[in-house]
Amino acid sequence: MTTMMTIADHAETMSALASKTAMHFFRGALGVEFKADESPVTQADRAVETEVRRYLKTHFPDHGILGEEHGLEDGKKDHMWVVDPIDGTRSFLSGHPLFGFLLVHLTDGKPDLGVICMPVLNEIFMGQKGKGATLNGQLVQTSGQTSLNDAILYINEGEKICRDHPVIFDRLLSIGQTRRFAYDCYPHALLAAGHVDVVIDYDLQPYDYLSVSAVVEAAGGVMTDWNGQALSMTSDGAVVSAANRELHAQVLKTLSAPSDGGSFQP
Questions:
Q1: Structural fold of domain 4-139
Q2: SS (H, E, C) the chain
């Protein structure tokens, strides 16, 4: 039987492999295609996922795999790995260094180990249920900030939130002491390390948020959907990460406050 320590070691090895493969393509000549939803995919995305799947099939042949580029294999398994080979393909293809590799292990559908790997920065954030979160092996934890008025807030996918939920978007612009617009996984990693207090994110898929939630929660934070429901494979993709429960409750109140546009509905 594979122990969690063994799984953690393998997760770190896969992160190193993914980083090496991604960096082989980064800022080089890329073949870029666009999916039906107009999101881009590159040779690098496919190469990284192929490398990770090969590793998983060798070392965990009885585990299921869900990957962004190659779909689901053996989805009814009690043990499942979910892979996002390059989180932030638009960042990657434009030469921006804040793309990541995301990996999560699920037992009976629930995350128990997650990785946020930043290849260019040489950073690996890992969260294990009941064991805390680390950055390159050193323990990290979320901030003690409990006042939303004083919080550092990141808004991911701001243009999509503005388009679909303009009232909520306007409301987000009035909260927090410092606000930044961003994309992809790194703001959540910064939250896990205590540098950021709140991250609002939108239009995500399970391979985008499950690994991130494992890291954030292992670091002492809270990550749910916009209605405060626990994240799962079937969540709607609108998520909020907060440093602690007090801050999380204040953010949910902001998202659901009555207004002319109404509260958030997925």
A1: Fructose-1,6-Bisphosphatase; Chain A, domain 1 (3.30.540)
A2: CCCHHHHHHHHHHHHHHHHHHHHHHCCCCCCEEECCCCCEEEHHHHHHHHHHHHHHHHHCCCCEEEECCCEEECCCCCEEEEEEEEECHHHHHCCCCCCEEEEEEEECCEEEEEEEEECCCCEEEEEECCCEEEECCEEECCCCCCCHHHCEEEEECHHHHHHHCHHHHHHHCCCCCEEEEECCCHHHHHHHCCCCCEEEECCCCHHHHHHHHHHHHHCCCEEEECCCCECCCCCCCCEEEECCHHHHHHHHHHHHCCCCCCCCCC
- pLDDT tens sequence across 89-138: 889 888 999 999 999 999 999 999 999 999 999 999 999 999 999 999 99
Domain ranges of the chain: 4-139, 148-256
User: Is residue 108 annotated as involved in ligand binding?
Assistant: no
Q: Does pTM top 0.85 for this prediction? A: yes
- Residue 38 CB coordination number (10 Å): 6
pLDDT digits (tens, 9 = 90+) for 240-252: 999 999 999 999 9
217 is known to lie in a ligand binding site: no
Token output for 19: 């980083």
The better pLDDT of the pair 93, 39 is held by 93
Specify whether the CB–CB gap between 8 and 59 falls below 8 A.
Answer: no
- Identify any residues that bridge with 135 across adjacent strands, giving them in sequence order: 125, 138
Would residue 243 be called left, alpha or beta, if left means φ above 0 and alpha means ψ between -120 and 50 degrees?
alpha
68 a known binding residue? Answer: yes
Work out the pLDDT band at 36, boundaries 50, 70, 90.
low
The CATH number assigned to the domain with range 148-256 reads: 3.40.190.80
